[in-house]
Amino acid sequence: MARPSVNPLVTACRAGLLDRRGHARLSQDPFSGRVAVITGAGSGIGRALALDLACRGAVLAVSDIDVVGLGETARQCSTIGATVRKDTIDVTDRDAMSTYANDVAAQFGQVNLLFNNAGIIFTGDIAQSSYDDLERVIDVDFWGVVHGTKAFLPQLIASGAGHLINISSAYGLISAPSYSAYNAAKFAVRGFTEAIQQEMKAAGHPVQVSCVYPGAVRTLIMRTSKCADGQDHAAIHELFDKMARTAPEQAAVTILRGVHAGKGRILVGPDALAADMLARLTATGYQQLFQLARYLNEHQKDRKPARKER
Questions:
Q1: What percent of the chain shows pLDDT beyond 90?
Q2: Mean pLDDT throughout 207-224?
Q3: What integer best gives the mean pLDDT of the chain?
Q4: Which residues contact 54 (CB under 8 A, 6 or more apart)?
Q5: Rounded to an integer, what distance in angstroms lies between the CA atom of residue 248 and that of residue 199?
Q6: Cβ–Cβ under 8 Å, residues 9 and 52
Q7: Rounded to whole angstroms, how far apart are CA atoms 196 and 198?
Q8: Least enclosed by CB within 10 Å: which of 27, 59, 155, 197?
Q9: How far is it, in rounded angstroms, from Cα 206 to Cα 135?
Q10: 49, 74 Cβ separation under 8 angstroms
Q11: For the packed helices 44-55 and 67-80, what is the interaxial angle rounded to 10 degrees?
């Protein structure tokens, strides 16, 4: 039987290191002893956040619908020495999320950090997309964030030093063809989060609010996704793999650095920085770039190298 894979971060922590850069673990780490809830923790950014926070001495409540992946995340965090609670939770289930929030608070006494990270993606032009596929993306990517926020916000306020972190996307800054539902959900997360930022300040609640905009991160989101009839799933995977230059561990470091700094907007990866700049400088002009990219991609196979004249 093959032995479970060991994340390099786990090895570093067991050696007494804080992160991949080899910084010594410090008892005064700002996340030490804080209770952090992470949805979508079975892989990708969610798992990387859990492991980084485990190294920093945080108490963890991790959840996912992927039982196997979630179990592996919990195992690795436990190996580090963290206190971990794991629950199989569907973020689209409002009642389950409310019960979950109460159970976590009852076990740990408080909740300081909530990472609404669970998400899915669907590829397909609107004309070829079914209502069920569109609704599923909206349910997970937007309503999952709403359910998590509503369920845990009272605990974040009661903690006296809470922090709400909602994961949007670079596609919450600009839109791309074939991802209408994903774009809509991530733009909605952005608007939802920015409204709550203002509400917390206006009410004087001790809760900081951050919205995170990751670019393409090397996760399983595309490989576990669905696409409309007629879409080439293999080609989509190949393109995503070429675009995804940011490792989940890098994303986690950037996110936690932004959370510690109290940033309201956290951009993850060079492509997210580029998307933000395009949106600011061109308004909707960036759409021409997407159209050009689509045209080139569709005609790439038909192009033949030109012969050199002698």
A1: 73
A2: 93
A3: 89
A4: 13, 60, 76, 77, 80, 81, 82, 84
A5: 31
A6: yes
A7: 5
A8: 27
A9: 34
A10: no
A11: 20
How many whole angstroms separate alpha carbon 258 and alpha carbon 168? 14
Closest CA to 274 of 237, 245, 249, 253: 245
Q: Is the pLDDT of residue 173 over 80?
A: yes
Whole-number pLDDT of residue 303: 58
pLDDT tens profile 73-101: 999 999 999 999 999 999 999 999 999 99
Q: Specify the amino acid at residue 170.
A: A
Q: Within 10 Å of residue 295's Cβ, how many Cβ atoms? A: 10
Q: Helix 144-159 and helix 94-108: axis angle, to 10°?
A: 30
More confident of the two residues 79 and 241: 79
- pTM here? 0.87
* Gap between the Cα atoms of 113 and 266, Å rounded: 16
- Single out the residue of 198, 204, 166 nearest to residue 185, CA to CA: 166
Length of the chain: 310
Which residues are designated catalytic?
Answer: 182
Question: Per the structure block, which two tokens stand in for 18?
Answer: 């804080």
Task: Supply the CATH classification number for the domain 25-36+52-58+90-112+119-298.
Answer: 3.40.50.720
Convert the chain into a string of H (helix), E (strand) and C (coil): CCCCCCCHHHHHHHCCECCCCCCECCCCCCCCCCEEEECCCCCHHHHHHHHHHHHCCCEEEEEECCHHHHHHHHHHHHHHCCCEEEEECCCCCHHHHHHHHHHHHHHHCCCCEEEECCCCCEECCHHHCCHHHHHHHHHHHHHHHHHHHHHHHHHHHHHCCEEEEEECCHHHCCCCCCCHHHHHHHHHHHHHHHHHHHHHHHHCCCEEEEEEEECCECCCCCCCCEECCCCCHHHHHHHHHHHCCECHHHHHHHHHHHHHHCCCEEEECHHHHHHHHHHHHHCCCCHHHHHHHHHHHHHCCCCCCCCCCC
Angle in degrees, CA 184, 156, 263, rounded to 5: 60
